[in-house]
Write a structure and sequence with these properties.
Layout: H1 15-18, H2 20-24, E1 32-33, H3 45-57, H4 67-81, E2 90-93, H5 96-107, E3 113-118, H6 122-130, E4 134-139, E5 141-142, E6 147-148, H7 151-157, E7 162-168, H8 180-192, E8 196-200, E9 226-230, H9 233-236, E10 244-247, H10 251-263, H11 270-279, H12 282-307, E11 313-314, E12 322-326, H13 334-344, E13 347-348, E14 350-351, E15 362-366, H14 371-384
Parallel strand pairs: 1-13, 3-4, 3-7, 7-8, 8-9
Antiparallel strand pairs: 2-10, 5-6, 9-10, 11-12, 12-15, 14-15
Helix pairs in contact: 3-11, 4-11, 5-6, 5-10, 12-14
The chain binds pyridoxal-5'-phosphate.
Protein backbone atom coordinates (compact mmCIF):
# COMPACT_ATOMS: atom_id res chain seq x y z
CA UNK A 1 0.00 0.00 0.00
CA UNK A 2 1.27 3.50 -0.74
CA UNK A 3 0.84 6.54 1.49
CA UNK A 4 -1.51 7.93 -1.17
CA UNK A 5 -4.05 5.11 -0.76
CA UNK A 6 -7.08 6.16 1.28
CA UNK A 7 -8.18 3.89 4.14
CA UNK A 8 -11.70 4.13 5.50
CA UNK A 9 -11.35 3.93 9.28
CA UNK A 10 -14.94 4.81 10.10
CA UNK A 11 -16.81 2.30 12.23
CA UNK A 12 -13.60 0.54 13.31
CA UNK A 13 -13.43 1.86 16.91
CA UNK A 14 -11.04 4.51 15.68
CA UNK A 15 -11.26 7.40 18.12
CA UNK A 16 -10.14 9.94 15.51
CA UNK A 17 -13.09 9.21 13.18
CA UNK A 18 -15.66 7.55 15.40
CA UNK A 19 -15.64 10.14 18.19
CA UNK A 20 -15.42 13.30 16.13
CA UNK A 21 -19.14 13.84 15.72
CA UNK A 22 -19.73 13.58 19.47
CA UNK A 23 -16.79 15.78 20.38
CA UNK A 24 -16.72 18.33 17.57
CA UNK A 25 -20.06 18.05 15.82
CA UNK A 26 -18.22 17.12 12.59
CA UNK A 27 -19.86 14.18 10.85
CA UNK A 28 -17.55 11.41 9.62
CA UNK A 29 -19.79 11.15 6.53
CA UNK A 30 -18.39 14.29 4.96
CA UNK A 31 -15.94 15.61 7.57
CA UNK A 32 -12.17 15.27 7.78
CA UNK A 33 -10.55 14.06 11.02
CA UNK A 34 -7.38 16.08 11.65
CA UNK A 35 -7.24 15.96 15.42
CA UNK A 36 -5.83 12.90 17.33
CA UNK A 37 -2.11 12.32 16.64
CA UNK A 38 -2.32 9.12 14.69
CA UNK A 39 -1.78 8.69 10.98
CA UNK A 40 -4.05 7.54 8.16
CA UNK A 41 -1.43 4.99 7.11
CA UNK A 42 -0.81 1.31 7.68
CA UNK A 43 2.45 0.50 9.45
CA UNK A 44 5.29 -1.16 7.49
CA UNK A 45 5.11 -4.77 6.34
CA UNK A 46 7.59 -5.92 9.03
CA UNK A 47 5.01 -4.99 11.69
CA UNK A 48 2.13 -6.53 9.76
CA UNK A 49 4.18 -9.72 9.46
CA UNK A 50 4.86 -9.80 13.21
CA UNK A 51 1.15 -9.49 13.94
CA UNK A 52 0.31 -12.13 11.29
CA UNK A 53 2.84 -14.50 12.86
CA UNK A 54 1.14 -14.07 16.23
CA UNK A 55 -2.21 -14.68 14.62
CA UNK A 56 -0.97 -17.75 12.73
CA UNK A 57 0.41 -19.20 15.92
CA UNK A 58 -2.92 -18.44 17.51
CA UNK A 59 -1.85 -18.45 21.15
CA UNK A 60 -1.69 -15.16 23.02
CA UNK A 61 0.04 -15.89 26.31
CA UNK A 62 2.30 -13.89 28.59
CA UNK A 63 5.47 -12.53 27.03
CA UNK A 64 8.85 -13.87 28.17
CA UNK A 65 12.50 -13.28 27.25
CA UNK A 66 12.71 -9.61 26.39
CA UNK A 67 16.28 -9.84 25.05
CA UNK A 68 15.39 -9.37 21.35
CA UNK A 69 12.97 -6.58 22.13
CA UNK A 70 15.53 -4.75 24.28
CA UNK A 71 18.26 -5.29 21.69
CA UNK A 72 15.97 -3.78 19.04
CA UNK A 73 15.49 -0.63 21.12
CA UNK A 74 19.21 -0.44 21.77
CA UNK A 75 19.91 -0.82 18.02
CA UNK A 76 17.42 1.90 17.10
CA UNK A 77 18.74 4.44 19.60
CA UNK A 78 22.30 3.83 18.43
CA UNK A 79 21.57 3.78 14.70
CA UNK A 80 18.97 6.50 14.46
CA UNK A 81 19.98 8.78 17.33
CA UNK A 82 23.61 7.96 18.01
CA UNK A 83 22.73 7.22 21.62
CA UNK A 84 24.28 4.27 23.48
CA UNK A 85 21.96 2.66 25.99
CA UNK A 86 22.17 -0.47 28.04
CA UNK A 87 19.22 -2.88 27.70
CA UNK A 88 18.89 -2.97 31.49
CA UNK A 89 17.89 0.71 31.52
CA UNK A 90 14.59 0.04 29.71
CA UNK A 91 11.14 -0.19 31.29
CA UNK A 92 8.03 -0.90 29.24
CA UNK A 93 4.93 1.06 30.16
CA UNK A 94 1.45 1.11 28.66
CA UNK A 95 2.32 4.04 26.46
CA UNK A 96 3.92 7.32 27.39
CA UNK A 97 0.95 8.99 29.03
CA UNK A 98 1.20 6.03 31.40
CA UNK A 99 4.98 6.62 31.52
CA UNK A 100 4.42 10.28 32.42
CA UNK A 101 1.95 9.34 35.15
CA UNK A 102 4.42 6.82 36.58
CA UNK A 103 7.19 9.44 36.65
CA UNK A 104 4.97 12.01 38.37
CA UNK A 105 3.83 9.38 40.85
CA UNK A 106 7.32 8.01 41.53
CA UNK A 107 9.40 11.16 41.81
CA UNK A 108 7.04 13.83 43.20
CA UNK A 109 4.63 14.18 46.12
CA UNK A 110 1.05 15.51 46.17
CA UNK A 111 1.16 19.31 46.10
CA UNK A 112 4.56 19.49 44.35
CA UNK A 113 4.94 21.66 41.27
CA UNK A 114 5.68 20.15 37.85
CA UNK A 115 6.97 22.57 35.22
CA UNK A 116 5.68 22.50 31.64
CA UNK A 117 6.82 24.73 28.78
CA UNK A 118 3.47 25.76 27.37
CA UNK A 119 1.67 25.41 25.07
CA UNK A 120 2.43 21.70 25.16
CA UNK A 121 0.88 18.24 24.67
CA UNK A 122 -2.31 18.38 26.73
CA UNK A 123 -2.11 15.00 28.52
CA UNK A 124 0.85 16.15 30.63
CA UNK A 125 -1.25 18.70 32.54
CA UNK A 126 -4.16 16.27 32.86
CA UNK A 127 -1.95 13.61 34.42
CA UNK A 128 -0.20 16.07 36.76
CA UNK A 129 -3.50 17.48 38.04
CA UNK A 130 -5.16 14.08 38.37
CA UNK A 131 -2.23 13.03 40.57
CA UNK A 132 -2.85 16.02 42.86
CA UNK A 133 0.30 17.88 41.76
CA UNK A 134 0.42 21.47 40.58
CA UNK A 135 1.02 22.42 36.94
CA UNK A 136 3.54 25.26 36.67
CA UNK A 137 3.18 26.79 33.22
CA UNK A 138 6.31 28.44 31.86
CA UNK A 139 5.31 30.17 28.64
CA UNK A 140 7.37 29.58 25.54
CA UNK A 141 8.13 32.76 23.61
CA UNK A 142 6.57 32.92 20.16
CA UNK A 143 9.44 34.57 18.36
CA UNK A 144 7.93 35.34 14.95
CA UNK A 145 6.45 31.89 14.55
CA UNK A 146 9.23 30.00 16.32
CA UNK A 147 9.04 28.92 19.95
CA UNK A 148 12.01 29.68 22.19
CA UNK A 149 12.60 29.63 25.95
CA UNK A 150 12.93 32.56 28.37
CA UNK A 151 14.83 31.17 31.35
CA UNK A 152 15.15 34.53 33.11
CA UNK A 153 11.37 34.67 33.33
CA UNK A 154 11.16 31.02 34.43
CA UNK A 155 13.80 31.53 37.14
CA UNK A 156 11.73 34.40 38.52
CA UNK A 157 8.61 32.21 38.46
CA UNK A 158 10.05 29.34 40.55
CA UNK A 159 8.90 29.20 44.17
CA UNK A 160 10.97 26.27 45.46
CA UNK A 161 7.94 23.96 45.40
CA UNK A 162 8.81 22.55 41.96
CA UNK A 163 10.28 19.05 41.75
CA UNK A 164 10.07 18.07 38.09
CA UNK A 165 10.11 19.50 34.58
CA UNK A 166 8.58 17.66 31.62
CA UNK A 167 10.22 18.53 28.34
CA UNK A 168 8.56 17.65 25.05
CA UNK A 169 11.45 17.06 22.62
CA UNK A 170 10.74 17.48 19.72
CA UNK A 171 7.98 19.82 20.76
CA UNK A 172 4.29 19.12 20.24
CA UNK A 173 2.56 21.37 19.14
CA UNK A 174 5.25 23.87 18.03
CA UNK A 175 7.27 21.33 16.02
CA UNK A 176 10.61 22.55 17.41
CA UNK A 177 13.63 20.26 17.39
CA UNK A 178 15.51 21.74 20.34
CA UNK A 179 19.13 22.59 19.63
CA UNK A 180 22.08 21.50 21.73
CA UNK A 181 22.33 24.93 23.37
CA UNK A 182 18.60 25.00 24.15
CA UNK A 183 18.83 21.54 25.72
CA UNK A 184 21.82 22.66 27.76
CA UNK A 185 19.83 25.65 28.98
CA UNK A 186 16.94 23.35 30.02
CA UNK A 187 19.46 21.15 31.87
CA UNK A 188 21.01 24.16 33.62
CA UNK A 189 17.53 25.37 34.63
CA UNK A 190 16.74 21.92 36.07
CA UNK A 191 20.03 21.92 37.97
CA UNK A 192 19.46 25.43 39.38
CA UNK A 193 16.06 24.41 40.72
CA UNK A 194 16.90 20.78 41.52
CA UNK A 195 14.29 19.36 39.20
CA UNK A 196 14.00 15.85 37.80
CA UNK A 197 13.82 16.08 33.99
CA UNK A 198 11.35 13.87 32.14
CA UNK A 199 12.25 14.12 28.45
CA UNK A 200 9.38 12.90 26.27
CA UNK A 201 10.99 12.07 22.92
CA UNK A 202 8.05 10.27 21.31
CA UNK A 203 8.38 12.49 18.20
CA UNK A 204 12.15 11.88 17.86
CA UNK A 205 11.96 10.02 14.54
CA UNK A 206 9.73 12.36 12.57
CA UNK A 207 12.04 15.27 11.82
CA UNK A 208 12.29 17.33 8.63
CA UNK A 209 15.23 18.40 6.46
CA UNK A 210 18.46 19.00 8.30
CA UNK A 211 16.86 19.14 11.76
CA UNK A 212 18.38 16.41 13.87
CA UNK A 213 16.88 15.30 17.15
CA UNK A 214 19.36 15.25 20.04
CA UNK A 215 18.47 12.91 22.91
CA UNK A 216 18.62 14.93 26.14
CA UNK A 217 20.57 12.01 27.59
CA UNK A 218 23.50 12.86 25.30
CA UNK A 219 24.20 15.94 27.42
CA UNK A 220 26.83 15.14 30.01
CA UNK A 221 26.31 15.11 33.77
CA UNK A 222 22.54 14.78 33.68
CA UNK A 223 21.93 11.10 34.34
CA UNK A 224 21.12 11.42 38.03
CA UNK A 225 18.13 13.64 37.28
CA UNK A 226 17.00 12.37 33.86
CA UNK A 227 14.27 10.02 32.63
CA UNK A 228 13.88 9.59 28.85
CA UNK A 229 10.68 8.35 27.22
CA UNK A 230 10.54 7.04 23.65
CA UNK A 231 8.12 4.82 21.71
CA UNK A 232 7.45 3.11 18.41
CA UNK A 233 3.82 4.16 18.51
CA UNK A 234 3.88 7.64 16.84
CA UNK A 235 6.68 6.74 14.46
CA UNK A 236 5.00 3.59 13.13
CA UNK A 237 1.35 4.45 13.74
CA UNK A 238 0.69 1.68 16.24
CA UNK A 239 -0.66 3.77 19.14
CA UNK A 240 -3.32 1.17 19.88
CA UNK A 241 -0.56 -1.22 20.98
CA UNK A 242 -0.10 1.09 23.99
CA UNK A 243 3.51 0.51 24.68
CA UNK A 244 6.33 2.91 25.52
CA UNK A 245 9.95 2.82 26.60
CA UNK A 246 11.03 4.59 29.76
CA UNK A 247 14.83 4.65 29.75
CA UNK A 248 16.67 5.40 33.00
CA UNK A 249 20.43 5.25 33.37
CA UNK A 250 20.77 6.18 37.04
CA UNK A 251 20.50 3.07 39.30
CA UNK A 252 18.75 4.91 42.12
CA UNK A 253 16.11 6.47 39.85
CA UNK A 254 15.75 3.09 38.19
CA UNK A 255 15.16 1.25 41.43
CA UNK A 256 12.47 3.71 42.48
CA UNK A 257 10.73 3.36 39.12
CA UNK A 258 10.96 -0.45 39.24
CA UNK A 259 9.37 -0.48 42.70
CA UNK A 260 6.51 1.70 41.55
CA UNK A 261 5.86 -0.54 38.52
CA UNK A 262 5.83 -3.50 40.87
CA UNK A 263 3.51 -1.79 43.33
CA UNK A 264 1.06 -1.03 40.56
CA UNK A 265 1.31 -4.48 38.96
CA UNK A 266 2.40 -3.19 35.56
CA UNK A 267 3.81 -5.69 33.10
CA UNK A 268 4.07 -5.46 29.29
CA UNK A 269 1.55 -6.31 26.65
CA UNK A 270 2.71 -8.99 24.17
CA UNK A 271 1.30 -7.22 21.12
CA UNK A 272 3.26 -4.06 21.89
CA UNK A 273 6.50 -5.98 22.36
CA UNK A 274 6.14 -8.06 19.18
CA UNK A 275 5.34 -4.95 17.16
CA UNK A 276 8.14 -2.84 18.67
CA UNK A 277 10.72 -5.58 18.05
CA UNK A 278 9.70 -5.75 14.39
CA UNK A 279 9.53 -1.95 14.03
CA UNK A 280 13.01 -1.13 15.32
CA UNK A 281 14.75 -2.85 12.41
CA UNK A 282 16.45 -1.92 9.11
CA UNK A 283 13.14 -2.48 7.29
CA UNK A 284 11.35 -0.24 9.77
CA UNK A 285 14.03 2.41 9.34
CA UNK A 286 13.64 2.39 5.55
CA UNK A 287 9.89 2.87 5.90
CA UNK A 288 10.36 5.76 8.34
CA UNK A 289 12.61 7.55 5.87
CA UNK A 290 9.97 7.20 3.14
CA UNK A 291 7.34 8.40 5.57
CA UNK A 292 9.36 11.48 6.51
CA UNK A 293 9.65 12.43 2.86
CA UNK A 294 5.91 12.01 2.34
CA UNK A 295 5.05 14.01 5.46
CA UNK A 296 7.40 16.77 4.35
CA UNK A 297 5.52 16.98 1.05
CA UNK A 298 2.19 17.22 2.91
CA UNK A 299 3.62 19.84 5.26
CA UNK A 300 4.68 22.06 2.35
CA UNK A 301 1.28 21.80 0.64
CA UNK A 302 -0.62 22.40 3.86
CA UNK A 303 1.51 25.37 4.91
CA UNK A 304 1.44 27.00 1.48
CA UNK A 305 -2.36 26.72 1.29
CA UNK A 306 -2.97 27.90 4.85
CA UNK A 307 -0.45 30.74 4.76
CA UNK A 308 -2.11 32.01 1.58
CA UNK A 309 -5.20 32.85 3.67
CA UNK A 310 -4.67 36.37 5.05
CA UNK A 311 -4.44 36.33 8.85
CA UNK A 312 -3.57 32.60 9.17
CA UNK A 313 -0.05 31.43 10.02
CA UNK A 314 1.09 27.83 10.21
CA UNK A 315 4.12 27.56 12.46
CA UNK A 316 7.11 26.26 10.46
CA UNK A 317 7.63 22.72 11.72
CA UNK A 318 11.01 21.09 12.24
CA UNK A 319 9.37 17.81 13.32
CA UNK A 320 5.98 16.08 13.88
CA UNK A 321 2.97 15.95 11.56
CA UNK A 322 0.96 18.35 13.70
CA UNK A 323 0.54 21.81 12.19
CA UNK A 324 -0.02 24.58 14.73
CA UNK A 325 -2.01 27.30 13.05
CA UNK A 326 -2.38 30.79 14.51
CA UNK A 327 -5.61 32.65 13.71
CA UNK A 328 -4.69 35.75 15.74
CA UNK A 329 -4.27 38.09 12.78
CA UNK A 330 -7.76 37.38 11.49
CA UNK A 331 -9.01 39.47 14.41
CA UNK A 332 -11.80 36.89 14.85
CA UNK A 333 -12.94 35.52 18.18
CA UNK A 334 -11.94 31.96 18.99
CA UNK A 335 -15.54 30.92 18.61
CA UNK A 336 -15.76 32.40 15.14
CA UNK A 337 -12.62 30.86 13.64
CA UNK A 338 -13.33 27.51 15.28
CA UNK A 339 -16.88 27.53 13.93
CA UNK A 340 -15.63 28.25 10.45
CA UNK A 341 -13.20 25.32 10.61
CA UNK A 342 -15.66 22.86 12.14
CA UNK A 343 -18.97 23.91 10.61
CA UNK A 344 -17.95 25.40 7.24
CA UNK A 345 -14.79 23.44 6.38
CA UNK A 346 -16.07 20.37 8.31
CA UNK A 347 -12.68 19.58 9.75
CA UNK A 348 -12.19 18.26 13.30
CA UNK A 349 -9.06 19.74 14.90
CA UNK A 350 -7.55 20.12 18.38
CA UNK A 351 -8.40 23.37 20.14
CA UNK A 352 -5.45 25.55 21.20
CA UNK A 353 -6.41 26.25 24.83
CA UNK A 354 -6.24 22.54 25.70
CA UNK A 355 -2.44 22.85 25.25
CA UNK A 356 -2.26 25.41 28.07
CA UNK A 357 -1.18 29.00 28.24
CA UNK A 358 -0.36 30.56 24.87
CA UNK A 359 -2.69 28.32 22.85
CA UNK A 360 -5.76 30.57 22.71
CA UNK A 361 -5.55 31.74 19.12
CA UNK A 362 -4.40 28.39 17.70
CA UNK A 363 -5.85 25.19 16.27
CA UNK A 364 -3.79 22.03 15.64
CA UNK A 365 -4.16 20.12 12.36
CA UNK A 366 -2.80 16.60 11.81
CA UNK A 367 -1.61 16.29 8.20
CA UNK A 368 -0.46 12.62 8.31
CA UNK A 369 -2.95 11.48 5.69
CA UNK A 370 -3.05 10.73 1.94
CA UNK A 371 -2.11 13.86 0.04
CA UNK A 372 -5.50 14.16 -1.65
CA UNK A 373 -7.09 14.55 1.78
CA UNK A 374 -4.68 17.35 2.69
CA UNK A 375 -5.39 19.15 -0.58
CA UNK A 376 -9.14 18.80 0.09
CA UNK A 377 -8.68 20.19 3.62
CA UNK A 378 -6.76 23.19 2.32
CA UNK A 379 -9.43 23.84 -0.34
CA UNK A 380 -12.14 23.73 2.31
CA UNK A 381 -10.19 26.08 4.58
CA UNK A 382 -9.73 28.57 1.75
CA UNK A 383 -13.47 28.46 1.07
CA UNK A 384 -14.35 28.84 4.78
CA UNK A 385 -12.19 31.98 5.00
CA UNK A 386 -12.84 33.20 1.42
CA UNK A 387 -14.04 36.60 2.60
CA UNK A 388 -10.51 37.32 3.86
CA UNK A 389 -8.83 36.69 0.49
C1 LIG B 1 4.46 14.32 23.36
C2 LIG B 1 3.55 13.15 23.43
N1 LIG B 1 3.70 12.25 24.41
C3 LIG B 1 2.89 11.17 24.49
C4 LIG B 1 1.88 10.96 23.58
C5 LIG B 1 0.97 9.78 23.69
O1 LIG B 1 1.63 8.70 24.13
P1 LIG B 1 0.93 7.28 24.31
O2 LIG B 1 -0.04 7.08 23.22
O3 LIG B 1 2.09 6.37 24.25
O4 LIG B 1 0.31 7.29 25.66
C6 LIG B 1 1.68 11.89 22.55
C7 LIG B 1 0.58 11.72 21.59
O5 LIG B 1 0.34 12.51 20.76
C8 LIG B 1 2.54 13.01 22.47
O6 LIG B 1 2.41 13.91 21.51
Amino acid sequence: MSFDDPIDRRGTHCVKWDAMETLYGVSPDDGIAMWVADMEFQPPQCIQDAVSAMHDHGVYGYFGDESKYRAAIQWWMKNRHDWDIDPSWIFTTHGLVNGTALCVDTYTQPGDGVVLFTPVYHAFAKVIRANGREVVECDLVNDYGHYTFDFNAYDAQMTGNERMVILCSPHNPGGRVWTQSELKAVAAFAERHELIIVSDEIHQDLTFGSHKHIPTAKLSGLSERLITMTATTKTFNIAGSHSGNVIIEDPDLRERFANRMLALGISPNSFGLFMATAAYSPEGAEWVDELRGYLDGNRKIFDAGINAIPGLKSMPLEATYLAWVDFKDTGMSREEFTTRVEKHARIAVNHGPTFGSGGDTFLRFNFAAPRAQIIEAVTRMQAAFADLQ
